[in-house]
TrEMBL record:
The keyword Kinase does not apply. Residues 1-22 form the signal peptide. It comes from Rhynchospora breviuscula. It holds the Pfam family Ferritin_2. It comes from the Eukaryota. The lineage of its organism: Eukaryota, Viridiplantae, Streptophyta, Embryophyta, Tracheophyta. InterPro entries: Pigment-catalase-like (IPR052965). Keywords: Signal. The keyword rRNA-binding does not apply. This is Desiccation-related protein PCC13-62.
Amino acid sequence: MLTYLTSAIFTCLFLAVPTTKGHNPSLPQSDVNLLEFPLNLEYLEAEFFLFASLGYGLDQVAPNLTGGGPPPIGGKMANLDPRTRDIVLQFAYQEVGHLRAIKNTVKGFPRPLLDISADNFAKIINDALKQTLNPPFDPYANRLNYLLASYIIPYVGLTGYVGANPKLQSAQAKRLVAGLLGVESAQDAVIRTLLYEQPLQKVKPYDITVADLTDRISKLRNTIGKQGLKDEGLIVPLELGAEGKISGNVIAGDRDSVAYDRSPEEVLRIVYGTGNESVPGGFLPKGGGGQIARSYLS
């Protein structure tokens, strides 16, 4: 009888212990860190796409995923045609799913402070062109500007996932990253394809074409990433095209058309816009969240 009662008590106590959603003790800590790090990019993409398509962000769409983090700076609805708005809204809801998928696997961290203001994008474009545009570039002004601004973001996350995959130890983490990478790659391909439809169009009111601006953005990311060629515009020299036989470059890849990879340090250098993983700025003015990003902040 005593044995039965003891067993029953332990069973009740076990069932009464609360479980923490997103905490997976079976994952190696290194996998946890690598899965949490891309939340920085997923938060950024979710807010940028949500605000552009709906005029509001995660605080209205999925407040449970913000972790109480501060609202983003400068988000607003973009001036988009119905078809483009529909595509961007699809991206937005996909990013909500990505946040949930990661947080269902690891604990994660609250949304960091994000700067998705027109001023921040204008600075990035100025840095890419090495001149100050007048009037300043406004990502929310029209369809073309918004697509060019979108060119700036998902590809960085894509290369980060490629870089993380070989470092992961568990099958669960590898499966999640592979699934996230597949959708991020598709988003980037859609953005590049829409821009490739008009490579020689001038980005009004400036004297620069779509192809030239994507090339300058890619060169900027290569420069501040500090690890050589890992980024390519829509039109490239023949030797950089697929099999060295074509200049069109709707999907970027190395000499074997394999996706480029980036380390967390490279990703931070680019999203901070400072070229230094220890100096926040850009999209993350107070730095990224998670163990990897925080380890570089003093």
